[in-house]
Amino acid sequence: MPNTKDKKSRQYSNTNWPYLTEEAAVYMREKGILHLLIDLPSVDKEKDEGQLLAHKAFWDVHGNIRTEATITELIYVPNKVKDGSYILNLQIAPFENDATPSKPVLYKID
Q: If you write DSSP's letter for every residue of 15-28 in order, what string do you get?
């Protein structure tokens, strides 16, 4: 907080945004997290020479590849959405590619 609306049009190029370490991605994978949603342009460093360590660790590309797992980047959650428990309806475009658009929809659990 605050989660300002300028995030919707922020230019991230050459900003060296925060990113996940490979170890953090492994931890989330080992905890059984299948769908990672993050408000940054990538879970990896902006300049990593294509290593994509967090992506590869989360999906376990050097082990038992988790084809059911997803990473959704550049999400925006308005401040009016309160902390709590929600059902996530993660709508994914129906085509195969190394990346595809998704639309996360939250439903509050009462």
A: S------HHHHHHH
In this structure, what DSSP letter does residue 39 have? S
With 0-12 / 13-18 / 19 or more C-beta atoms within 10 angstroms meaning exposed / middle / buried, residue 59 is: buried
Residue 51's region, left for phi above 0, alpha for psi from -120 to 50, else beta, is alpha
Q: pLDDT > 90: what percent of the chain?
A: 77
What is the Cα–Cα distance from 42 to 51, expressed in whole angstroms? Answer: 13
Q: Where are the alpha helices (DSSP H) in 1-110?
A: 22-30, 53-59
pLDDT tens per residue across span 8-18: 899 999 999 99
Instruction: Say whether pLDDT at 97 is over 90.
Output: no
Distance CA 24, CA 44 (A): 11
Query: Where along the chain do its domains lie?
Result: 5-80
